[in-house]
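task queued by scheduler; priority normal; single chain, no ligands, no partner chains; default sampling; output format set to structure tokens
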Amino acid sequence: MSVLQSSVNWVLSQAKARLGLEYDYGQCYSPTDLTQGGDCSGIAGWVLQAMVNLPQNIPVWANGQWAHVVSTEAWAPGAPAGTVGPFGTIAVDDLSDIPADAALTVNIMHGGGGEDSHMNVVVPLPNSLPYEGVLVESNGSYGSCTNGTGAYPSTASLWTDHHYLPGPWVFDVQPGEPPLPPHPSGKTYTVQSGDDLSTIAATQGVTLWALEASNPTINVNLIFPGQILNVP
């Protein structure tokens, strides 16, 4: 399996834009409403859909949210190492068994379902162990929250099961263009009235192509004030 770098960038940018949203049981993020929260499995499933099926192919349900397609219990408790779970994720006995080119780590607390279960995903960072990086997680019953602010790392004792999504990440490029950077810089820009992508790129010191590539889901001809862009 391979995961496109643009999909990874998109997930990180979208998750950061929703930092700190309230836990909302049974729900998932919305592509248009940045105030819509979700629950832990809704957000984990959303990340996996984006990485495996591409962001533009995530279904939007009638309620305006991205599809909530898995529950924590979709990953069998205590699955033997090598067991293939949802989206092609693979169970491991120990975090040290996750390969270096894994696309992300899935951490699960199996406690019987509902409020007794929890999960998150971790997108690796450069020069780190494959299970370390950006935590993408919904506000949960243990005080954890989206994208790393107070969330539980893969090494936390509450996790009962670990899985990984096979990589590697693949640079998806335009003909004649350099590859996307390994990771977004973590910097964002909020669109102001009168902005266009060319002026934003110039003021941020990046090429127009790089700015567009780091925001693969935007309509390059229609940006609006308040829109948050990822700056490479």
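post-processing summary
- The first strand starts at residue 3 and ends at 4.
- Residues 142-148, 174-183 have pLDDT under 50 and may be disordered.
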